[in-house]
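re: that chain from earlier
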Amino acid sequence: MDIRYLEAFLTISEEGSISKAATRLGLTQPAVSRHVKELEKSLNKTLFIRSHEGMTLTETGQLFYNEMQPIWHELQRKLHRFVPKNAVRLGVAPFISSTYLPQTLTYEASKMNITCTYTRDNCLEFIPMLKKGDIDAAIFEDYPSHEGFYSTLVKHDEYQVAIAEDHPLADCEELSLEQCFSYPQIVPPKTSRFYQMWHTLCEKNGWKKRDIHSLPYRSFLYSLTQNHAVAIIPKLMVEPPWNRHFLFKRLSNCPFTRDLYLFTSKKSYLKPLQQSLIHTLQR
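^ sequence. v structure.
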């Protein structure tokens, strides 16, 4: 049995859906679905009840989870003892995940290998993971400090508008929010920091939210090609290969910005990690 099948099972059990599990694992949804099906085939057991509301454990699935989860956590803890001391497990949000950063960051001056280990829509979910030692460091959006951790700013990021090349607004050099709201909106999951900012702005200005599509990050930009949709995204995402398929426009009087902070429980990690991330995130 492939150990990846077990990891997929445990992650789906905790996230309640294949799409969220895929985001957390950095895999495609078909790959995660295939892994859990192979596990069920190996065990000759049905582990999940599948519905439009998500994935729910069967009685057998819950028993299997209760048995395997402590073993999996202990295995990860023991494996980490053999990881080179300069290897750092980094938690990142999908807007700055391995889709936009390399899976492993290296920067000669810091002599560290930084592995993008976990993703979460809400960065605050990294707090208990840091406390338990599941990760060594994490990047937080607009959350500068937390008791018990060392933190520092690594990047100030602004937002632009992404549209398809054949969009009616393609000839505009700069767009207003009012222009953007005249077309279908592609927004990240409701648990994300940006969605909360976007929702608050809509409520404040009395803008009607119609034709709104909240999608997982991995299908975010691809969906712009449908129905002349628009998306407001961080500049950090305005990178190849996206430039081959989309246009990026300045947003006039842009109300969206974000500061990215590095958190770690180990003071000795703070400066070298900061150097590595600043070097990598320079655009």
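The longest helix spans residues 59-80.
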